[in-house]
Amino acid sequence: MSRIWKAIGLLAGVVLLAWILYHPGRRPELTVATVNNADMILMQQLSSEFEKQSGVKLNWVVLGENILRQRLTIDISTGSNTFDVITIGSYEAPLWGERGWLVPLDDLGADYGYDDIFDVVRQGLSYRGRMYAAPFYGESAFTYYRKDLFRKAGLEMPVQPSYEQIRQFAQKLHDPEHNVYGICLRGEPGWGQNIAYISTLVHAFGGRWMDSDLKPQLNSRAWAEAVGFYVDLLSKYGPPGAITDGYNENRALFANGNCAMWVDATSAAGYLLDPSQSRVATTTDFAKAPIANVSNGPGWVWSWGLAIPASSKRADIAKQFIKWATSRQYIATVGERFGWLRIPPGSRKSTYEIPAYLQAAPFAPLVREAILSADYTKGSRSLVPFVEVQYVGIPEFQAIGAEVGQEISAALAGRATVQQALALSQAEAERSLKGRSVQ
Questions:
Q1: pTM for this structure?
Q2: How many percent of the chain have pLDDT more than 70?
Q3: At residue 8, does pLDDT exceed 80?
Q4: Matching CATH topology for 2-138+302-360 and 141-298+365-432?
Q5: What is the mean pLDDT of the segment spanning 21-50?
Q6: Which CATH number fits domain 141-298+365-432: 3.40.630.30, 2.60.40.10, 3.40.190.10, 3.40.50.12780?
Q7: Distance between CA atoms of residues 121 and 20, nearest Å
């Protein structure tokens, strides 16, 4: 009898799918909001396969990182029902999960492979052991460099460079007459743009955002040294107009051959080694993120994940899409169809056991090491009772980071001194955290 009921259930499912496919006006729909990074653009291109399999129509909203964050924060905090699937990161997932703004994603099935996700990535997208965003890809930080330029100048990049060495290399390799700049770094203001990099730089110099009592520390010596180093380095040896260059712009500059070095996310490595995407595919090499006064300062670990707002009326269908887009099978599909350099990296252990990927991506073991060695709870000389390296895991940080990013951008543009920028940043942080204490 149970077999008969199973057959009836299967037949009903087939009939329902056929009805959906042949009645396009009645097809269920999902609205997906995502960032305009290359991996997400590829996900959008492949999504027609999910539509065919499920009968679900996907509506895409693809935005720049700063705009996406502003839009999603307003939308989810007001309980609007605009999006069914949203792209958020390790900062938002635990904070929004704690507030009940997201649907838990612990029930994607035994075949989803939760144990296959890197622990540090899963923890960053969880609150009290419950995962609120499924990792699409994970990343740490690298130093990208042109080995042909280093060889020509008689220079050798160490596996673990220091920031003083980076300065010396940038000075010797800076060649603006030939459109080659000593170094490229994020200059576009935003807590997920210039601040994502500057925050790790400050920690490398031994600084921190705030002490264990949430008192801002932006007027400290370490902040002055780090930001002074950044402004001086990028002003002298960076490309013109660096204040408008975020992650995507710098990736394009490096791929076009305009940067001798670039310190940024490991997720760009596959793009830069792909000859169809990069002019410097055969001359690009990798080193660890630079260090200064603190060896564990550059402990960048971030994951872009897919989540479901609690306000969505289509959570069950949204889970199907998220399971499809963040699965091992999706990674294999990208590799087989577009080449293994194009797969979304850094989220699953099994990715680093695929022979074809390891052969195509010589950087893969170093990426894995960087992600697994990153510890965002131990970024500075003094421990603090909250996440703090690339960002601070408190709700107020989004506004604080955005304001500090603007002030440092003004210093980079020459509209303010570093001291003025940090004084204003300290005052803004104090205002935002007035009366706040660690709970």
A1: 0.88
A2: 90
A3: no
A4: yes
A5: 86
A6: 3.40.190.10
A7: 36
